[in-house]
Design a protein that fits this description.
Blueprint: H1 3-12, H2 18-27, E1 42-51, E2 54-64, E3 69-73, H3 80-86, E4 97-105, E5 108-109, H4 117-123, E6 124-127, H5 139-149, H6 156-166, H7 170-173, H8 186-199, E7 204-208, H9 216-229, E8 234-238, H10 242-248, E9 251-256, E10 259-265, H11 266-271, H12 276-282
Parallel strand pairs: 3-8, 3-9, 6-7, 7-8
Antiparallel strand pairs: 1-2, 1-4, 4-5, 9-10
Helix pairs in contact: 5-6, 5-8, 6-8, 8-9
Length: 287
């Protein structure tokens, strides 16, 4: 069809009637039926952190959606663990350390002077790199320790069972709750520490390389657990394991030399990153 034929075709096409236009307009979804915008669980704006004179984090900005897993990756010493500790103000427990900026959970600033850090750490729990159960306590008492410390009301025995089930550990320890926590394997101890963190019902769970000291079987159990927990909790995990970040996270943040170089959906970060430094790191050219 040449240009003249196309013009003739357009001219010969009858105009749409007003009724059709009106009906089409009525069929458009109204704003009320559109999917609501979900506010972020964590919002980080212009976060800077120091160890004495050492400027460890530089103007970090990041948004963490609710009920998701965010992985922080990067070479050793890049600031990712510092970033994690800032999220529940454990960073400030180090002599000479300080942080500035805005950290919000559900819109409330976490760095405000009116925020009690102890109460904050109940809302934002932490699981460390190496399992750290209380050595003089039983399995049961390890899980209940936070409940007693925070004077949480309710049936502690029921909470202990519930959180051990959440941590996929109940079936393995239900017949020896009075035994020492040190009688458990490394992987079981780490899941016990996760249960201890969950017992006080946090909203956010921070995990600092939770499987780095575990064997592949125990690591797989921790990763399966993370997938289950994100249905109820917002999780931020630090990991050096690129494959693990790809398996467990929804979004990935790449840190380098104290800078947040890039953050985005995990698939994009690993297959089509925007920054050359990100591409070099995830492809193994450095780090």
């Amino acid at each position: 069809m040449n240009v003249n034929q196309e013009i003739a075709s357009v001219k010969s096409t009858p105009p749409r009637s007003p009724e059709v236009v009106t009906e089409s307009h009525q069929q458009r979804p109204s704003p009320a039926t559109e999917a609501p915008v979900v506010p972020p669980k964590l919002t980080v704006e212009h976060l800077n952190a120091w160890y004495g004179q050492n400027h460890a984090l530089h103007d970090v900005n990041l948004v963490v959606p609710p009920c998701s897993v965010t992985a922080a990756i990067g070479p050793s010493g890049c600031g990712k663990s510092t970033f994690l500790r800032c999220l529940n103000r454990m960073h400030e427990l180090i002599p000479g350390a300080r942080a500035e900026g805005t950290l919000r959970i559900d819109g409330k600033d976490l760095l405000g002077r009116d925020v009690d850090p102890v109460s904050l750490r109940r809302r934002v729990g932490m699981v460390f790199q190496r399992p750290n159960p209380f050595p003089t306590m039983s399995i049961r008492d390890n899980v209940a320790a936070g409940l007693k410390l925070n004077r949480v009301p309710g049936d502690h025995a029921e909470i202990v069972e519930r959180t051990l089930r959440q941590a996929a550990l109940w079936d393995e320890v239900k017949d020896r709750l009075g035994a020492s926590a040190l009688s458990l394997s490394g992987g079981q101890q780490q899941r016990l520490c996760i249960a201890r963190a969950l017992a006080v019902q946090p909203e956010v769970l921070l995990m600092d390389e939770p499987a780095s000291a575990l064997d592949p079987i125990a690591t797989a159990k921790i990763e399966d657990l993370i997938h289950q927990l994100k249905e109820r909790y917002t999780i931020v995990i630090v990991t050096h394991n690129m494959q693990q970040a790809g398996r467990v996270s929804d979004q990935t943040a790449f840190f380098y030399m104290g800078d947040l170089v890039e953050v985005g959906p995990t698939e994009k970060i690993f297959t089509n990153p925007s920054e050359k430094r990100t591409e070099d790191y995830v492809t193994g050219k450095f780090g």
